[in-house]
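Researcher: Sequence of ABC transporter, ATP-binding protein follows. Predict its structure.
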Amino acid sequence: MSIIEVAGLTKCFDDITAVNKASFSVKRGEVFGFLGPNGAGKTTTISMLTGLARPTAGSIRIAGYDGISDIKKAHSHIGVVPDESNLYPEMSGYENLVFCASLYGMCCSEAQERARLLLDEFGLISAKDRSFGVYSKGMKRRLTIAAGIIHNPRILFLDEPTTGIDVVSARHIRRLIEKLHHQKTTIFLTTHYIEDAQRLCNRIAFIAEGRILALDTVENLLDAFEKNIVLPVGPTVFLLRMRRPLKRSSPICQSGLFQKKRYRLLQKKRLIFSPLCRFLKNGISPSMRRLLYVRFWKMSFSILPKGKKGAVCEIFEDIWEYITKRYEELLS
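Model: Prediction complete. Tokens:
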């Protein structure tokens, strides 16, 4: 059953169309990823879904309410975590949460209990009395998420939750998202990190220039492409020496063939780079590794869509950008 239904959603600013006839639905309890480059229309879409911006055209149904005419009734079911925190820097973490709870009509004792519970759950209890302004970026992001779920919303909107923070904090936030998902919270997640989408989301939508170009599970979207990985490893004599260990040791290789001084790995299953990367780093001898013209961390992978050639993604995090730019051509 869908908890969010969007049809023909459009937002124009003068002669600029920020969102162009977007249509999609979000299932109850799923993590729905919304991927696209900066300026694609992700934040504008969230603003319309949460009532911060009025659509130029289209319809929204959220938590059983009309998302345009009855958005105030839906607000008690919605939590919003913006890309930039909206909490008060001069107030402590604890005071910020208690204040946010009071905005949803919680009594003082209930608000205080809920604030302490979330501070402990989010690993911030030791910093509860510090001013929010002195928190690190990762701590600020965690407290902002805590404020977004202070009222136990059925739907949580997360706008770029792991952008601009350190690796450890990003990992902590991913775990929090996974925990909320296990608690059956519906999560609408905007990001431009494909690894976040692959790890966290049940389905993802790719948006570019305000238009949704593709919507499906990560696996089904990538199934639209031939998962051919090309290693630019040089002369044929080197390839002949690498062929057997590559086919034997790489856990993702189904078969391999030589083409113009390159070794092409034919992968028939889901596109996963990490096993190949681990193999190239640790699974071959130093002498064999030296046969590569480029080192492991400078390798480039060629992702060849069906019927197309020459599209190169240098690192796997940029696959989403390739799909965003090229998927419309495949659909035509």
